[in-house]
Request: fold
Amino acid sequence: MSYVTHADLGGRTGFGRVVPEDENEGFHEAWEPLALAITVAMGATGSWTIDQSRAARETLPDYLQLGYYQIWIGALEKLMLERGLVTEQEIAQAQVLQPAKPLARVLRAADTPAALARGSATDRPDARVQVAFNVGDRVRTRSHEVPHHTRLPGYARGKVGTIERVHGPHVFADTSGQGLGEHPQPLYTVVFDGRELWGDDAAPGLRVSIDAWQPYLEAA
Amino acid sequence: MAGHEHHHPDHDEHSELSETEIRVRALQSVLAQKGYVDPAALDVIVDTYQTKIGPRNGALVVAKSWTDPQFREWLLRDATAAISSLGYTGRQGEHMVAVENTDAVHNMVVCTLCSCYPWPVLGLPPVWYKSAPYRSRAVRDPRGVLADFGLQLPETTEVRVWDSTAEVRYLVVPQRPKGTDHLDEAQLAELVTRDSMIGTGLPRQP
Reply:
């Protein structure tokens, strides 16, 4: 497997306790708002998909050592370097050394409120795909690893669950994350009994769901 | 913020910029010079998530669902439309699902793969939501996580965890606290905490 994600954390142990935070606490470092803003603004240029940006983040080798906005910035640099939009030297010197490349679009201040309020829907209701499962159907998730970005968490691989909601076709993260296009696939909420995921250790009464695209599933 | 310098002459011992800060500011400068980002747009983005979009939006959605049965029914059937009718739309909230807590079921939301979170109703996620401890344990030991928040649920309550692994974003609709019949929607909204809409807390008592 040449593709390694460091972000698939569900069910892993040893990370310690959760530290709650007051809801009025906002950013923790002066540079964090800027990191958010340039990440959102560069995302709006259409130079990569959200799935490609997730793939860039989860494959950062030091993912688990970085703060979340550091992960964003690390991935942003990686995406821009890959596309030749900036060079390592330009970042190091904070200076433009190469001419700018043309972008599909640039997010202007006047258009920003509308763009944020619009978002980017990923449902594709008109996509012509066969919906294979209905609410209540029993399904088994794919058990093998894949050598690319995917959104089937490791803890839910090869498990039997029940279709709880049918969301219709959505952009398929696996192809979109590889830059191979949207290839919309039916999306489902699949719910698992805790014991199916964690065996006899499972807390009584626990149920956990994931949202899974049809290619992750087969009839059980 | 864009283009501004932040000098703190009275705090020289703190004035050394971190490596990350230097890099972020360098990036901003290069991107602006190349015309990839509009510095004024960066200011609008920051202002939006610092002053306009946050958990008070979600609190109003929940409070309305407590007082208006028709809205509640709509929210549980088509959360995207119901929430959008209150003006909360957009990025990271394009496909919303609202899940209601009852005496029998307590809902809790996580993204084990990154930090998926319903921005239009809750704002930007807190640090713990994005952290390895929460993401690893929420799906396996949710009661242990709730204990970290000082919350203990009755043994008979089922814990239902929603892992946001696609672009669907979840809003927990907590139970209305008892003894709040005399409160109006705005007063009720003040009882709705961010954590109660993620499922790691309960609303405040009046």
In short: The two ends of chain B are 39 Å apart (CA to CA). Strands of chain B lie at 95-100, 105-110, 158-163, 168-173. The first helix of chain B runs from residue 19 to 33. Chain B touches chain A through 85 residues (CB under 8 Å).
